[in-house]
Write a structure and sequence with these properties.
Helix content is 78%, strand content 0%. The protein has 294 residues and is mainly α. Helix 4 runs antiparallel to helix 11.
Amino acid sequence: MIDQKRAYLYALGAVLVWSTMASAFKISLRYLEPIQLLFYASLFAALFLGLLLVKQGRLALAFRCQPEEYRISVLFGLLNPFLYYLVLFKAYDLLPAQQAQPLNYTWSITLTLLSIPLLQHKVKGMEILALLVSYCGVVVIATEGQPFQLSFTSPMGVALALASTLVWSLYWIYNTRDRRDPVVALFVNFLCSLPIILVYLLIFSRPVWPSLEGLLGAAYVGLMEMGASFVFWLLALKYTENAARIGNLIFIAPFLSLVMIYFLVGEKILPATFFGLLLIVAGLLLQRIAAVRK
């Protein structure tokens, strides 16, 4: 069923949710450690996806997977939500939100790099240019506008933010081979990851009942970032006549996110952040043009 207007509404809904996430992560981490935020957010996400499947009458599908599919879900659950969000939340804990958010946004560029050894993808001239432009933006943001001094606010934070793009790209590459219903597969992935997250929490932190602010933050991250935005984007793809039309909307998110960071988190947005983000988005646009030509 094609309904372009509805597709745009769902896509904009996903973009608006993504735009709030940098602020939500940073505010939530004032009250919770990264692993604690991950645990409670994952619980809310699993609850949301489970209730959605109940409403659709498809919850039973999650418990009818083949043994191989459950083994795959354990692997996927290790990558997302466990490793991806653990690394990402730690990056946000160490960096200003205005740095962590654009750095994480380069996952598409990381995906291109990984596709060379994993998918035997051959990189063309414009794609190489896109990589260079985007990573110039990364250096500008990470050094707060002093790229030639290479003085980072938090080297570990920068490394973790870039590592999160590696984890997400690996998840995306391998997840394309999963033929199950996307919502069912994601729900099973979360169920498989929860015991892993709990064990990590018990070993490296401590289970605590969060404050109201922490609980609300975890609920928002779990329901919106891990659950609703995924469903919104799936519905947008379902109703659109051309995926590229709604795909272009994602470039709104990082700039709108800076506005949210300024008003909600209270960070003063540095000129270097805005300029670096322009370079990153320019690189992503070049990458998209190269893909269209190909």
